[in-house]
Design a protein that fits this description.
Radius of gyration: 22 Å
Number of domains: 2
Distance between the termini: 45 Å
Strand content: 5-15%
Structural class: alpha/beta
Number of strands: 8
Shape: globular
Strand order of the largest sheet: 3-2-4-5-6-7-1-8
């Protein structure tokens, strides 16, 4: 049974309440360090930052609707080789689910880690967030109206803006499997923030932070309402994709503007290989080979192997794709990678009855062999 507690919000200032809660976690040594988005001195961006000094949390902003990186990658760096101190990490749902996949792939560890999930109301591209901060007097995070709408199960972007493509079709606004869930959806954030905690950490937080147990009765209904709306948007987007992409040629056409920069691999939390095959001499072909291909076919596209790269990457990680969309955010050619990988991923994941990031107990399809799997292909 989880422990639920209330963080009091004064004068509707949700961000200050969150900062104070995080500061108290450090001061009372519930955690020894915190990985949390911190506002940069430029004022137009935030970046995940590892903090040990509670005073540095004065500019922490876990509400900022932007993702500079999928923090699961950063948690991997902090824990893969072991961490002796207890580190708290503030994660969105897609980041937590990616972390679960990395733990299964032995690229991260949950030892000495306290995971704090925060309800995600959607994120903007980095350039859009920068413009939003510049244009609005209070661009630190969701407006009062947006938070009020979230309390009723509706999430809307700021007027004149739109969320990243991945967020528009994300049906996981609430992190699961975390030690502490920071609830905003279905909560009257003018007066409170809901904490939903695992029993052990929950009791420690209650005692050390002197919080009161409590609940938000409308939360389950509000989350369900938002999930239903996102699922509808997802299904419509998938249907449009499958209507457009019906064969090999139409799939290849989706990658026509790929410039083989490989940015997507660096941004993807699931692409963890220390050396990508496509970055080795295997794909740095001898000069005469290009001429041979051009002679054989009459012409040879350069750079070569763009489609092979994309399809190989898809084959390697699509069963574990959590739909964070960082690949698309990193793409200079604006390829619709978030939609493509999610649409293909849904079918692959259904084949294996696998939901990435759902549970540590679920076996990874790429690492599990079953003799009775796919008997129709034997």
């Amino acid at each position: 049974m989880s422990v639920r507690a209330i963080v009091e919000v004064k004068d509707g200032d949700v961000l200050s309440a969150l900062r104070e809660f995080l500061r108290r976690l450090l001061e009372t040594q519930v955690v020894d360090a915190l990985l949390v988005p911190l506002e940069l001195p430029s004022g137009d961006a935030v970046a995940p930052t590892l903090i040990k000094d509670p005073e540095r949390l004065a500019t922490a902003n876990p509400l900022a609707p932007v993702m500079m990186a999928n923090s699961a990658n950063l948690v991997s760096r902090l824990t893969r080789l072991g961490n002796r101190e207890k580190v708290g990490v503030v994660l969105r749902s897609c980041e937590m689910r990616a972390l679960i996949e990395l733990v299964k792939l032995q690229q991260a560890s949950l030892d000495n880690l306290v995971t704090l999930g925060i309800d995600c109301l959607g994120t903007y591209e980095v350039t859009q967030y920068s413009r939003l901060k510049t244009e609005l007097e209070d661009g630190a995070g969701p407006s009062t109206d947006q938070l009020k709408a979230a309390g009723e199960g509706e999430v809307v972007p700021a007027e004149g803006y739109e969320f990243r493509a991945a967020c528009q079709i994300c049906e996981y606004p609430m992190a699961t499997g975390v030690d502490i869930n920071i609830g905003l959806i279905g909560v009257d954030t003018q007066t409170m923030i809901l904490l939903d905690m695992e029993p052990d950490i929950g009791q420690e937080v209650l005692e050390k932070l002197d919080l009161k147990e409590g609940d938000a009765p409308g939360r389950e209904e509000a989350v369900g309402k938002l999930v239903a709306a996102r699922e509808q948007a997802r299904d419509q987007a998938f249907a449009a994709f499958h209507e457009k992409v019906t064969d090999t040629d139409s799939l290849i056409a989706q990658f026509s503007t790929c410039i083989a920069c490989h940015n997507c691999t660096f941004a993807c939390p699931i692409c963890y290989c220390k050396e990508c095959l496509f970055e080795t001499d295997t794909f740095r072909h001898p000069s005469d080979r290009y001429l041979m291909w051009a002679g054989r076919k009459g012409a040879a596209r350069m750079p070569s192997d763009t489609v092979l790269f994309q399809l190989t990457r898809m084959n390697h990680m699509v069963s574990s794709c959590v739909g964070c969309g960082m690949c698309e955010s990193a793409c200079p050619s604006d390829l619709p990678l978030a939609l493509m990988f999610r649409a293909v991923g849904q079918r692959v994941q259904q084949l294996f009855d696998y939901s990435p990031g759902r549970s540590l107990e679920d076996e990874l399809p790429v690492a599990t062999f079953k003799e009775d799997e796919f008997p129709e292909y034997k």
